[in-house]
Design a protein that fits this description.
The structure is a homodimer. With about 300 residues, chain A is α/β, with parallel strands linked by helices. The first copy, chain A, has helices at about 25-35, 55-70, 85-100, 115-130, 145, 150-160, 175-185, 200-205, 220-230, 235-250, 255-265, 285-295; strands at about 10, 40, 105, 135-140, 165-170, 190-195, 210. In chain A, helix 4 links the parallel strand 3 and strand 4. Chains A and B meet through helix 2, helix 3, helix 4 and helix 5 of A and helix 2, helix 3, helix 4 and helix 5 of B.
Amino acid sequence: LPIERFSGVLAPVITPFDKQLNPDGGRLANHCRWLLSQGAKLAVFGTNSEANSLSVEEKIHLLDTLAEQGIDPRQLMPGTGCCALTDTVRLTRHAVELGCGGVLMLPPFYYKGVADDGLFAFFSEVIQRVGEDRLQIYLYHIPPIAQVPLSLPLVERLVSTYPETVAGIKDSSGDWRNTAALLSQDWDDFRVFCGSESFLLATMQHGGAGCISATANVNPAAIHQLWANWQTDQAETLQQKLDRTRQFFQQFPMIAALKATLSLYANDSEWRRVRPPLLPLSADLLEKLLTGLRELVFDMPRLEEFTAG
Amino acid sequence: LPIERFSGVLAPVITPFDKQLNPDGGRLANHCRWLLSQGAKLAVFGTNSEANSLSVEEKIHLLDTLAEQGIDPRQLMPGTGCCALTDTVRLTRHAVELGCGGVLMLPPFYYKGVADDGLFAFFSEVIQRVGEDRLQIYLYHIPPIAQVPLSLPLVERLVSTYPETVAGIKDSSGDWRNTAALLSQDWDDFRVFCGSESFLLATMQHGGAGCISATANVNPAAIHQLWANWQTDQAETLQQKLDRTRQFFQQFPMIAALKATLSLYANDSEWRRVRPPLLPLSADLLEKLLTGLRELVFDMPRLEEFTAG
């Protein structure tokens, strides 16, 4: 049977750390279970997961922990793109062997200004070295952070060379014209995800698959509601509500704000930790976040009612 | 005894790959021996070493191979800065345990726009986790590629907090004003290296320690000659000769050009391979390089006479 490709809302799942700054698999599994209960799927090891602050060993261990804790690997789209070919192959192979529904793959991001031929060679080597028919790659285009874009001609060449493997793309360029250009292609069953729910309605209206968005960590049900109802009369209103939530979070350093928010939901200050070079919210920003969360009217969990997991 | 800090000319040693694109420890050791014979020291795992295209395991294995092959670890300044704290700690600790004279440390380079406090926390964690008095860190400032600069206030804070450990900096900003600002500090025994021999004479005249430069892979003796004679009447002439060589190489993609040049020196085409996402020189550029090398008059090894190792 061919593997069903992803659609819907995915959260780049934030990664909890213990007092020694080691990843906390138990809390991560709890958060994953809650996200699934809210209709979101699991893009663990995304940018907002601090994935690039984790070693390959730590990521492999976390994937194994999630599987042991009963998270369905078909709901997992782990980020597996590293700077080094050998790291990317090792982590991708592990994800496939575990039965993950797909992987989200950054280009190698240290060297800048590399040619499309070089990026094509990188992805080709990964696909050939992993050597698994089950491998489903979702390309990860995030030029503001990776500083290595995936051009439309490169994506087209990858899709036409590996149509069974290159399954889709997450466009975190923030540039709607780029997302629209991807959506206007007629590649068979190619799944386009926007990188922010601000573009979710437009993405769905143009034939997209959904979104993979930071704020799905804290607002998954409402984002999923728009995804499920984008063809209804409610859609514009739902999008506007999502936009207000998004704008609220964009006032803060995103990862620290997501973690602080989850620490409020779960009444668990352990969730606030980030790994250097990131910083937790300052006391001032934490207060501003808390006040804002209580004042804002949007479809978020009631703080006093919810405990993650 | 306190560890003597580095000075002189270091090459960010290019990394040879075999047919399977695995690092070739034997050829690397040969090249290191030749560089040492020409007066250069060994900044293995720099940007021009394709270090970020290697896994931590591959780097550890290469370090062990160099030690086994008799390379004096005190001549080694391996690059050990990775995106993940745990990777950086692991590789740095290994380098210290092997007796390396120092390490060259990139900041974590995935997340952009991070605060100096976050970068300080990263370097602090590394220093404390490695927990070795012998650790000598040379900071690696290369904003054009890492896209994460090390500001002067950050460097000052690191030096004043860890004066025994933070031993120097490589400035690959290409901005002489930044190098001059670093050179104008009066930090005790702090070693400033320029990232290109184009700035070598000026760096030495302002109290610097030397340079760590890509082209030291192919032109080490001439660069060392200027370093050793910067106070003599020859200095300006030597600098001008170095500049012409540098300008010649800057017409090409640097890493591929260095490898192609070494393949000519060593009469060994194996040296031409790069790992994706980099590309080897095209046939046209290879021809242009070859022609240029034969026409240029500078102090480079005579091609017909030299075999690496």
